[in-house]
Specification:
Chain A is α+β, with helices and mostly antiparallel strands. Chain A has 15 helices and 18 strands. By secondary structure, chain B is mainly alpha-helical. Chain B contains 14 helices and no strands. The chains are: A alpha+beta, B mainly alpha.
């Protein structure tokens, strides 16, 4: 649970309970002040001044101040930390050099006094405050930092109590939390690998809130007693099939569009995903600004798919490899997609490997198609457009389509600099429309999270972003 | 005897070295890159290259192997790539829990399985024998994850007698131990039955009966003791398997044991964790086999080791 080492979702959640960043997310994905009570940005968009809260203490009594901000950022980037996630801080001037261990590298982070931090960016980056709400940029203290993985000490609403590996993590409320203490005394995260067991624990009344698996959700929705307990909300999770745009026939946009026309997303959604999601018409989810509801998705049109293939010079169809992980819904999705593609004359061979191998192949560009899921790190259209499709991020950065369109890049770069929110959103929309036409992926759907909440639990909201629910407003009446 | 144990322990060294080589090679040729797992979904090539270098993953295979083996010889199994905790601490924390579960399952299996087998053998073809046969078939045929889920459904969700999962006192132990042991119960019942039938037809049993000994004494003291060798074989083998990862049972009952640890390590390509656990489990397996062999001599004085 060391923020600097957190790269996965469960760790990120636990970090959000114990720690605070300068900013944080609400369950409905707004960015609000965290340890910084306010901030302002210079007219050129390069300098951010954060005004810190005063009187905040870490759980062990150490005071929080500007020097913690500098220390935290240095620690995240320091090669000695062996963290792999410095990128949210790379917009800061000098941060990349610091991370590379270059001698004499200094970062554009200074403290003008104990409650003011000035951050200089290397170029304007208008959504920078959102990146400071990510788990990795959570504030830590130097004292005890070596042992944060085992004994995390933060300023957050919950204090760490104990962690029984592979069993549970227990937290107790921090009565001195600056934003008001949590309304319950303790919080326990159970670690249950098998979903049917987790479901049984909920039915036995031992678990208060459960993330409901797809199939269970379907049967519980049909059961009036269970249905009352269900809460769902669109998640910032995007399922898609990345198309490697550098390989064979897939270089041709018409072929990629044909793939989109061939796949029957709505049927897949109801048959494979138990209806948990909404069909995508681009990479920006409907809940985020920049989404353009007027654009129609490709829809299911086999004739059109065949026609496009023929126009591209493949009247007898093409052969592709479709890679899918063995986890979650990937195997079933890949089979449904394979059947759809076959109708249009696209012969897809499924290659099933465990997630780690699929990821490695995708990053190297070693195959044609990959079934993928993307969880947003922060609620902004940029977190879909930039990592998944900007040419700077080819391969490990997230663009496993190896998509490269200078016009698209220019729009996203411009959005990065644009301080005006409505202008920025319009740039996002334009970029989304542009890449949608190039079809560097098969747009599947945005997933819907579903939770079951026991009747004695009040005040729980399904978070849109994974670390947006901190359980501070939840109460129990039992 | 002591010389025998010593020789067997010495022989274990090349075995373990072989395990080390095979595991190392398998992980080396298997697809999937630990560094890609460390950095998460979004990363830059510089970070990946830097981490590879720090973890010596850019070195040639032989160099990596000597680095690792050198550490093992010094008693250092390395640190987890993901959590950066020492592997040896992780194993020390989880193995006792796996041992507890495996031990309970074996205890349950030997008590129930041997009893069932002995009672079946006393009246072959009778109603109890047929009932025992039925139970044994079911026990061998049902996969452990299915038995586990059914047990949870009945005893935790419907009857609410026991908790569905987790680690704690004895009530947390009953269901997983039963699920894990179910196959052994069935198997032991069958093996005990046939061994007992062989023995019960023997002359010495007739002599014992002719001496006027009570039937219970004949069966338990005279017959069972002579039927023990195949039973010990089954017990030893099953115990070895249970100790080296009751992965399914541990996953279904979210039992925080070593089996789950290894699976997690494999999915995340945590090389030192995989290598350390496999090596440790191989040692355990070798030891269990040795103890089984020693138990033969205890059960049958004709078996002697030198």
């Amino acid at each position: 649970m060391d923020p600097a080492l957190s790269t996965d979702v469960p760790t990120g959640r636990a970090v959000a309970y114990i720690f605070d960043g300068l900013t944080r997310f609400t369950p409905d994905a707004k960015v609000v002040p965290g340890l910084a009570k306010s901030w302002e940005v210079s007219a050129d968009g390069l300098t951010y001044t954060f005004h810190l809260r005063s009187g905040v203490k870490f759980h062990d009594g150490q005071p929080f101040g500007a020097k913690n901000v500098i220390y935290t950022f240095q620690r995240v980037l320091d090669p000695k930390t062996k963290g792999g996630r410095g990128w949210p801080l790379y917009p800061i001037k000098g941060a990349e050099d610091y991370a590379a261990g270059k001698a004499g590298a200094t970062m554009g982070v200074t403290a003008s006094n104990d409650s003011t931090v000035v951050i200089t960016l290397k170029e304007p980056f208008s959504i920078f405050p959102k990146l400071l709400a990510m788990p990795v940029t959570s504030m830590v203290a130097p004292n005890g930092a070596d042992n944060l993985g085992q004994k995390p000490v933060g300023t957050g609403p919950w204090k760490f109590v104990e962690w029984k590996h592979d069993d549970y993590i227990r937290f107790a409320k921090n009565p001195d939390y600056f934003d008001g203490p949590p309304k319950t005394d303790s919080l326990m995260a159970r670690i249950i690998p098998e979903m049917s067991t987790a479901t049984a624990e909920f039915e036995a009344g031992n678990v208060d809130v459960l993330s409901v698996p797809d199939e269970t959700g379907k049967s519980w929705q049909a059961d009036p007693d269970k249905n009352k307990l269900l809460q769902s909300a669109p998640a910032l999770r995007f399922w898609y099939v990345a198309i490697n745009t550098t390989r064979g026939p897939l270089k041709d946009a018409r072929v990629r569009q044909a793939l989109n026309y061939a796949v029957d997303v709505n049927t897949i959604l109801s048959a494979v995903m138990a209806g948990r999601g909404s069909a995508a018409n681009g990479v920006i989810p409907p809940t985020l600004p920049g989404y353009d509801g007027s654009r129609k998705g490709y829809g299911h049109d086999v004739a059109k798919a065949k026609q496009l293939l023929a126009a591209a010079g493949f009247p007898t169809g093409i052969d592709v490899e479709l890679w899918a992980a063995t986890t979650d819904q990937s195997p079933r999705l890949s089979q449904a997609i394979q059947a759809n593609l076959a109708e249009a004359g696209i012969r897809a061979k499924i290659v099933q490997r465990e997630a780690s191998s699929v990821r490695e192949a995708a990053r190297k560009g070693a195959a044609d198609l990959y079934v993928k899921e993307w969880w947003a790190d922060y609620p902004d259209a940029e977190n879909f457009l930039f990592p998944l499709l900007h040419s700077k991020n080819k391969g490990p950065g997230g663009n496993v389509s190896f998509y490269s369109n200078p016009k698209f890049d220019a729009l996203v770069d411009q959005a990065h600099r644009e301080q005006d929110e409505s202008k920025r959103n319009s740039l996002y929309s334009q970029a989304d429309a542009l890449q949608f036409n190039d079809a560097p992926m098969v747009y599947l759907f945005f997933y819907k999270d579903m939770y079951a909440v026991q009747p004695w639990i009040h005040g729980f909201n399904v978070p849109a972003v994974f670390n947006g629910q901190r359980w501070t407003d939840v109460t129990i009446s039992k | 005897m002591l010389a025998f144990i010593l020789r067997r322990l010495l022989l274990a060294i090349p075995t373990l070295f072989g395990v080390l080589v095979v595991v190392f090679l398998l992980l080396y040729v298997a697809p999937g890159d630990p560094v890609q797992e460390m950095v998460g979904e979004r990363a830059d090539p510089e970070t990946i290259a830097r981490l590879r270098k720090e973890l010596h993953l850019d070195e040639p295979l032989l160099k990596q192997f000597t680095l690792y083996t050198g550490g093992v010889l010094r008693g250092d199994f390395g640190n987890s790539y993901i959590t950066q905790r020492p592997i040896i601490r992780d194993i020390r924390e989880r193995f006792p829990k796996t041992l507890l579960l495996a031990g309970s399952a074996m205890l349950l299996a030997s008590v129930l399985g041997i009893t069932l087998g002995v009672l079946s053998a006393r009246a072959p073809g009778g109603w109890f024998d047929r009932l025992g046969l039925g139970i044994a078939y079911l026990g061998i045929s049902f996969p452990v994850y299915w038995v586990g889920l059914i047990l949870i459904l009945i005893f935790a969700v419907m009857l609410r007698w026991l908790p569905p999962s987790g680690y704690g006192g004895i009530k947390y132990l009953i269901l997983p131990a039963f699920a894990l042991g179910s196959r052994s119960i069935a198997f032991l019942a069958r093996v005990t039955r046939s061994a007992m039938l062989d023995v019960l037809g023997g002359d010495f049993v007739r002599t014992a009966r002719a001496k006027g000994l009570k039937e219970r004494v004949v069966v338990v003291r005279h017959a069972l003791r002579n039927a023990l060798i195949p039973i010990i074989t089954v017990l030893g083998l099953d115990f070895g398997y249970y100790l080296t990862g009751s992965i399914l049972t541990e996953t279904i009952f979210s039992w925080p044991g070593l089996g789950r640890y290894v699976v997690n390590a494999i999915t995340r390509r945590d090389l030192p964790a995989i290598q350390g656990s496999v090596l440790f489990l191989s040692v355990i397996f070798v030891l269990v086999n040795l103890i089984t062999d020693l138990a033969y001599a205890k059960a049958d004085p004709r078996v002697a080791y030198s």
